[in-house]
What does this fold into?
Amino acid sequence: MLILNAVMISVSVVNLLNHQKRTVEQVVGTTGNLAALLELNVADAVRRVDLGLLAIVDALEGRLNDGRLDADQIEPMLNMHLLRHPAVDAFRVADSQGKVIRGKGVTPDTMVSYADRPFFAEHQLRPGQDLIVSEPILGRVSKIWVVALTRSYRNADGSFAGVVTAAVNLEHFTGLLSTLSLGQHGSAIIRHQNTALLARFPLVDGPAGEPGNQQLEPELKTLLDSGKATGMFHGAQLADGIERTYAFRRVAQTPFLVTVGMAPHDYLEDWRSELRNAILLILGFLTTTVLGAWLLHRYWQKIQNQTLFLHTLIESVPVPLFYKDTAGIYLGCNRAFEESLGKRRDDIVGKSVFDMAPPEIAQRYKDKDDELFSQPGTQTYDWLTVKGCESHNVIFHKATFRRIDGEVAGLIGAVTDVTELKQAHAELQAHRDNLEQLVAERTAELQQTKEAAEAASLAKSTFLSNMSHELRTPMNAILGMTGLALRKAEDPGLQNQLGKIDFAAHHLLGVINDILDISKIEAEHMHLEQIDFRIDEILANLRNLIAQRALDKGLRLEIESSAEIGGLALKGDPFRLGQILLNLSANAIKFTDQGTITVRIQQAESGANHAVLRFEVSDSGIGIAAEDQQHLFNAFEQADGSMSRKYGGTGLGLAISKRLVKMMGGDIGVDSVPNVGSTFWFTLSLQKAQHDPRPVATQLRMSSETMLRERYSGTRVLLVEDEPINQEVSMSLLEEAGLSVDLAEDGEVALALAGQNQYALILMDMQMPRMNGVDATRAIRALPGYAQTPILAVTANAFEEDRQICLAAGMNDHIGKPVMPDLLFDTLLKWLSCRPLA
It folds into this structure.
């Protein structure tokens, strides 16, 4: 271990020395390259400015040759070149006497002369010759430190005419230095050939950093005195005292020289870091070797313990386990495997299956092993074995294992006896087959139940349709005859009696409507309309319907709604919404003896396309106990049985209201205190209408009956009705309106009359003997001249599907029984007004 540590230390020291040598050699090359790059950049900058000077000189001499040099023409040219050369602070032109006549910062009053500048005297001696570059000078116009690049221009006879100067700001040279990657402590300098300082990066304070300073490092001075164009030296810079390795170059074709230096503090940082790491590594290695020896001893003990643990684990597993090499030789097994074979471990380990089984069986085992070795991984398969006189179903689970070099070394296997499991599975399969049969039988029973339910639903719908017809037909006769009698009765007593009959009949009709409504909802035959409406229209209709009832009981009726809510244009079913409010308001009046009935509407939420409204109907009536509120909305129920005796009613109003609110996607409830009052409320989210349904302006007009009598007196219509009393009622109403009426007692007679006569309008009953209204309508539509004739269904069938059947058969409208005279006259006027002209 000591020898290993000595070798480790020796190798580390040699590597560190070699690394230091390579780093220094690399820095010498890097500084030389950077100095060469800086030389190119400085030479390029001078060349670019010189090209601008040559262009200006050519232009000036060209104008002098033409004899038309004008000082005012010079300024635009100088500005143009100034834009092209961002390194130049100013181009200026001086005349033959040295006076600056044009350029940046020069005005007619400017009294600046270059006559005493060294470059001016040189140009006078050699007009039109080389570029002359000054040492750093303080500009007389700009008052900043610059280097002046100058050229002379000549008159037409070749004599000296003046000087053109380009003042390059020393900051431009500093910018060239700042682009070099020198490290945190590196340095780069540009000097004039007379050693005057042009630019230094980084900047330093004091005289050493001022332009024109000529202090030099001794090593650099020696190189300059030798006359060499390039060179390397190592030393401490006088300006900041930092030791560096420098590369020196003279800038070709310019009076400049550059130096680039990199500090060992920077370029040996990696080496010093490596030195620290090496020391730490050596210390760590020493520590590790000592610790490793101790851990190796403990690890060997742990391996022994783990080996013992694995041996114990394998031995204790009840599943037979074995492992063998690639040649099929058993390397080991557990006690369960010994018991399964009935052999001792010494008779198994070191042998193959051919030593323990018949050749044909052993070959089958070997083929499975070879298959696994050809595609290493895992293998699972069923096997039938014979142990004694019994057959056993077993499952082999095998997996290959590898040596540390990745080569397959053998396999490990486990044997699971699944004989009992397969027997259980067979029993379960038999049970599953029996269960499938039971499910099939149950499914057949459910199908029969479903068909029976559908048949019951159809029977219910048929029953409701028949009930609607059978109830509304006599109601039509009762209301019709009562209405006719009221029209002709003059005795007040008789009018009072007939009015009571009419009120009772309308009450009975309301009960019938409620029963049919709740039945339609439960049978899912209720359909909601989606039409445009305004809230104030519903409120106005509600006031007309209940205001008199409240007044008759001495109650105040208050409807609270803002103008904004009343003017909301919404889409939905206004009839059903009005029905809900009417039910709640009528209940409030019914159960209130004194005080106020308040209908209140508030906007709970408003979106771009919808509005959530809360409707409340409050009263000061008898109130409802908390235990009675939970079943208040059930059909045919009131708060208690005595209410129906005292106040009347079927208990359907609230049930219908709740179901309508739910169909509209809303919620409904009640807040009530006995002997104080109740507030029934519901909320709805209604879609906003795309177009504002403007209400029709209310105006005084004649009744539809009067307008029929004046406009269509004598118009011939056909009434198709089989029930005698309804015939009498309908004919009386039509004839009082001035119409000429022909009667047909069934569809066949109607078809015959239509074939003989031309009628302006036909009123068609639906259920009639021999030929019903639907078949009669289809047949009449086929007659010449009846394709556009208005045919109006007059039927006691109140379901939506009945209305759709009428329209599908070719009818134009639907009038439900009992027939209300005003509705009948309105509908007749509508269709007679829009019928085709003959």
